[in-house]
Amino acid sequence: MNMKNMILIFAILLISGNAFSQYTNVMITNTGSPNEPAICINPKNTNQVVAGSNLNFYYYSTNSGLNWTKATLTSTYTVWGDPSIIADTAGNFYYGHLTNLNGNFIDRIVVQKSTNGGANWSNGSFTGYFPPKQQDKEWLCVDPRNNNLYMTWTQFDRYGSASPADSSVILFSSSTNAGESWSTAIRINKKAGNCVDEDNTVEGAVPCVGPNGEIYTAWSGPLGIVMDKSTDQGLTWLSEDKFVTTQPGGWDFGIEGIYRANGLPITACDISNGPNRGNIYVNWSDQRNGVTNTDVFFIKSTDGGNTWSTVRKVNDDASSKQQFFTWMTIDQKTGYIYFVYYDRRNYTNTQTDVYMAKSTDGGETFENFKVSATPFTPTSSTFFGDYTNVSAYNGKIRPIWTRLDNTALSLYTAIVDMPTNIETVNTVIPESFKLYENYPNPFNPNTKIKFDIAYSDEGMSKVNLTIYDSNGREVENLVDANLNPGTYEVNWDASDKATGAYYYKLEADGYAEAKMMMLIK
Predict the structure, then answer these.
(1) 220/200 Cα distance (integer angstroms)
(2) What are the two backbone dihedrals, phi and then psi, of residue 233, each rounded to the nearest 5 degrees?
(3) Strand, helix or coil at 253?
(4) Could you say which of 41, 81, 238, 515 is the most buried, measured as most Cβ atoms within 10 Å of its Cβ?
(5) CA of 85: how far to CAs of 16, 139, 168, in Å?
(6) Are 412 and 404 in contact (CB under 8 A)?
(7) Does 380 share its domain with 501?
(8) Which domain range does residue 515 map to?
(9) CA 301 to chain centre
(10) Boundary of a domain, candidates 398, 417, 436
(11) Looking at 66-133, which runs of residues are DSSP E strands?
């Protein structure tokens, strides 16, 4: 390629200002009235992503969530909603759900297994069959040390009953053979709830595993948010429910335009090799700041659940607007915490965005950023389910949410990639945006690219740093992230690239600049 053509490509790169100003939104489906979604990235192969939604749908992607295949999940036990999806270290996926076999409404919990990235599923195995009692809102986790599967959920004596004779409890079951069979479910909570499926019902037990195989789970109910813990793979649990925090207004509350809203807690434990390994986190929402100012909250324990920190607010808006339907996950490769939730900070009506938050310091601080491309307006006549969901591994983050357009529900994800190769060089706020010459240049096979991010009215800047070849084709996206003002440095490993000229382009808040570099092998 001659120099004239190279200069032309360089100019084209410079003027293509805001090509990546918004996280890519991907519609997974707009049929079947999907709600209550779950999503999971395969840590063994992050190109494989599996999702599910009510009532009996599953979706799988082989290219990290850019494209999806939809299918209907079937089982001889039936499939009746509340999907929960996890993956083990062998790359197998597990899909937990409720049943309605022969009209016996939610009489057990079934878990089905996929060994081919979610394309096909086994008939499944079940636990929690105690007729006429009813089983609800199961959640799964896996111990990566041995691939044991653990599950917790709510059992109702009689769902919806207001009778004092009927109660709700938290059950636990495990599988030590990759979901082929499950242990007899046992009750782990001490203080029972009622069966009304409101504030005084015990609900929201999401299990997680600690660094040494500890099992933690927290739930909401008449005592607020409490937790339990097992150090022997679920055989025994604490003698008393451990109080975590109050939940003012309870876990069941009203949100304008939403048929039903809850703030059930999500429990997660850092088992990465990062500085916060072993920390336990609980995320929920409540209305302590007013019924028109629901917020997303967070608390943590650094001593195995014995003591808990002060409550922190995750959403960073200064408004009295609604933030609700939160979910939290940990990228166990980095230890970073990610949240997703609905957010109305930008509107005076019920228009709703989807926001995420990120914490890289164990929940001491939170960075908020919008991931939905456009807002939507929910109506209380349309059931959204009870939650959103998010999965993360090695800098790939995939939130999932339901939205409403006119009368049609649809399911969306966003391509949120937070590269793990960014190093903060200086947090002093630069006076202007700047892209530096890479060094070394020429290089083989690694080079470092440094850039300055200036102050933005939004507080954070949407930043993209992309590599192009000499023909203007995108080679690799090094940065696609919301960054605070500061100076950053990124390493590019071009060991699998051919000798030649490459361009790197920085885009942030309307600023764009590109430079050339040479790879010589």
Answers:
(1) 8
(2) 60, 30
(3) strand
(4) 41
(5) 39, 8, 24
(6) no
(7) no
(8) 3-19+421-519
(9) 20
(10) 417
(11) 69-72, 84-87, 93-101, 104-114, 125-127
Which among 417, 434, 465 is the end of a domain? 417
* Among candidate residues 295, 258, 301, the one with its CA nearest the CA of residue 282: 301
Which DSSP string corresponds to 31-79?
A: SS--EEEEEEE-TT-TT-EEEEEETTEEEEESSTTSS-EEEE---TT--
15 & 38 share domain: no
Q: 174 and 282 in one domain?
A: yes
Report the distance separating Cα 247 and Cα 449, nearest Å: 46
Do 385 and 444 reside in the same domain of the chain? no
Q: In what order do the strands lie in the sheet with 422-426?
A: 422-426, 486-493, 446-453, 434-435
Q: Is residue 166 a contact partner of residue 152, using CB atoms and an 8 Å limit?
A: no
Along the 521 residues of the chain, how does pLDDT read in single tens digits? 444 444 444 444 333 333 333 789 999 999 999 999 999 999 999 999 999 999 999 999 999 999 999 999 999 999 999 999 999 999 999 999 999 999 999 999 999 999 999 999 999 999 999 999 999 999 999 999 999 999 999 999 999 999 999 999 999 999 999 999 999 999 999 999 999 999 999 999 999 999 999 999 999 999 999 999 999 999 999 999 999 999 999 999 999 999 999 999 999 999 999 999 999 999 999 999 999 999 999 999 999 999 999 999 999 999 999 999 999 999 999 999 999 999 999 999 999 999 999 999 999 999 999 999 999 999 999 999 999 999 999 999 999 999 999 899 999 999 998 877 788 887 688 999 999 999 999 999 999 999 999 987 766 788 999 999 999 999 999 998 778 888 999 999 999 999 999 999 999 988 999 999 999 99
Rounded Cα distance, 24 and 477, in Å:
13
Strands (E), 292-352: 295-301, 312-313, 323-330, 337-343
Co-location of 358 and 490 in the same domain: no
Total of domains in the chain: 2
User: Which H/E stretch holds residue 8?
Assistant: helix 3-15
Task: Tell me the pairing of strands 280-286 and 295-301.
Answer: antiparallel
76 Ramachandran zone, left/alpha/beta (phi>0; psi -120 to 50): alpha
Residues 6 or more apart whose CB falls under 8 angstroms from that of 245 comprise: 224, 225, 282, 299, 308, 311
The CATH number for 486's domain is 2.60.40.1930
Spatial distance between the Cα atoms of 137 and 98, rounded to a whole number of angstroms: 8
Q: What's the one-letter identity of residue 487?
A: T
Same domain, 231 and 215: yes
| Whether residue 370 is found in the same domain as residue 506 | no
Name the residue type at position 371. V
Same domain, 373 and 466: no
